[in-house]
Design brief:
Mean pLDDT: 95
Number of domains: 4
Low-confidence stretches: none
Shape: globular
Radius of gyration: 28 Å
Strand content: 5-15%
CATH superfamily of the largest domain: 2-enoyl-CoA Hydratase, Chain A, domain 1
Strand order of the largest sheet: 12-11-10-13-14-15-16-17
Bound molecules: ligand LH2STWOF
Length: about 725
Amino acid sequence: MAQYRRAGAAVAVIRLHNAPVNALSSAVVQALAQGVKKADLDPSVKAVVICGANGKFSAGADIRTFSSLQPRDRPALAETVSLIERSQKPVVAAIEGVALGGGLEVALGCHYRIAHAQARVGFPEVLLGILPAAEGTQRLPRLIGIPAALDLITTGRHVLAAEALKLGIIDEIVKENTVERAIELASKVSGQPLGPRKISLKPVPDLPDMEAILSEALVKVKRKARGRLSPEMCIQAIKAAVQLPFAEGVEKERELFRFLLGSGQAKAQQYAFFAERAVEKWTMPSGTSWKTASAQPIRKAAVIGLGTMGRGIVTSLVKAKMLVVALEQDQKQLDIGREAVTSLLQWEASKMQQSGQSQDICDPARLQFTLDFGALRDVDLVIEAVFEDMALKKEIFRKLSTICKPEAFLCTNTSALDIDEIAAVTSHPHQVIGTHFFSPAHVMKLLEVIRGHHTSPTTIATAMSLAKTLNKVGVLVGNCFGFVGNRMMAPYVEQAIFLLEEGCKPEEVDQAVEGFGFHMGPFRMLDLAGLDVGWRSRKGQGLTGPKLAPGTPARQRESRRYSPLPDFLCEQGRYGQKAGKGWYLYEKPGGRTANPDPWLYNFLSEYRETHGIKARFVDQEEILERCLYALINEGFQILADRIASAPEDIDVIYIYGYGWPTHRGGPMFHASTVGLPHVLSRLQKYSEAHPDIPKLQPSPFLKKLVALGSPPLREWVSHVRQPSSKL
Ligand SMILES: C/C=C(\C)C(=O)SCCNC(=O)CCNC(=O)[C@H](O)C(C)(C)COP(=O)(O)OP(=O)(O)OC[C@H]1O[C@@H](n2cnc3c(N)ncnc32)[C@H](O)[C@@H]1OP(=O)(O)O
């Protein structure tokens, strides 16, 4: 838990031990405190070094134990940090790997800090719905000043050693032998006065406009937080550091921590932390899993199609230092694509430069632009990112099947199309897989990885490992129309549009959903994505356009309710932001400010009149429940269909791909918090009121879980019916 040893005659080394990240469990904290006391009592010890096992200092408090923490518990970690600072002998932190959260607080209790050049430090607590609660909100501002402390504590960002040195968090950077250098420093400084090294005794550096800085920070975080409490509480704790003596500031920090710990938000954010890690451990319905499948190395990749998605994917691959071949169909498209990728890479390089990272990502030698399919002969993996057109995709996969080396992996970037149909035209269907990137692909963290019927475990492992290499979160899902994300989006968007028919304005629906914490309501999202995307898909499905059977009622398809509103908008050229008008009016084509549009109000009134719909007032509760519970209901069906293997998969997809607020833990977690019987009863109510909307009819799986007494979320999948044996 914490190993105590002597290094040379006069230095004691305390090494934190708790694989894999030296989390500060109560046993580790206790052992650390004992080590510090032992060193203090031993007259032959003149100085102490604290370090972590396996090249990591510590990733902070053990998050798994938070659920059992009682808000009234005395924070043992804070006591240990202050014990370290009170030590009569100099204590040096030797930081390798990470010093995060409580790990950094331990380091701040030390009198000196040495870090390896690759080490990262930070206070990510805010991302877990809490705040640094081992006196970190009181020590960091004293060490680095208010503006920098506000930035680090309210964003949770990790900073590399070079930036930490500049900020004054650490005293020295070393390239190797961090612990040995720390021992040397400890020996050198032993006997020197410790008072000036104790951060708690320092005043917070004064600034003439302190009040204004704090108020501006508050306004900024409130605007960005979308209902998340922890950033605001972090500011309150930092304010206490400015206004109160250290001990009283610590009291305030504890009070705020207790409040946050007891909030549902902290539970949701901690659930999301572990869900993100759980999805890496994928399983197929057959039982094959990450444990037995191994990924193949990808050195060279190709991207076909340099539209918006293709450009982002190329940028991601180049950033991950791969060799990349970018292919287009004609010279003009290739030139446009090359220019776009170059500027994206330059932008990325400048961002990396600002954060002190090396920026050699633009090396043109690693990126080849071509019109020639022959250039794909030696690539390890291809990502096709052309238009959502099945015939075109099949034509490309046929070609790839003959040109690429037999062991190459073939990925299709699609948001809905059938992976098996595409795989069927190749001679290696087991090496074909869906990779659904989200736009902009070089920014968005999510990668939906879609297994086809024949996709091999090696192909899955390779695609999941690719996600990690690209710094994305890969989630493995099954093959069905829309997979997980878009399949659940469909009933949500459908409800939003039905609500317009019934009397809402787009901004009312958006405000309700944004008030819940989403980045964007459904109508702003549709305008951003382009209304023509859905229109093309509906025409393909024969729901509108030339394939629609003559005489089909305007608001009905196969006895289900249908709204032709979005089709009418597209017929008017209102494709959304790019056209300058859609559900909203924009300042110009490509403009970003969504303004309510009187034209649309008139259009909706006339539409209601034509179809004999009497507009009614719909309250926020109904807006939210109809949109979100329809989406969640589909999530239950997706679990029952084994398209997602666990609720965590769905939640991670929604948090990283669709802007679901992290402090609400994802749609399935949200359902478990509001209670499955509640979700079921509301769906029943709405479905009785709208019997022609099948997506409001509660999923049989949701009903089953309620009948079973609403077991906790982690048990849900054990109640999914196993497919019947073929034997
Ligand atoms: C009050 C509150 C106080 C005092 C706190 O300190 S709160 C904790 C603050 N610290 C953090 O938020 C750090 C969380 N961890 C990470 O950001 C990352 O895990 C990492 C950067 C430390 C390492 O990343 P990576 O190398 O990609 O590895 P994984 O993220 O996959 O993690 C490996 C396994 O370790 C588990 N883990 C990580 N941190 C903790 C922790 N603080 N407590 C408990 N467990 C932790 C993580 O879940 C992985 O385990 P498995 O899920 O694979 O079983």
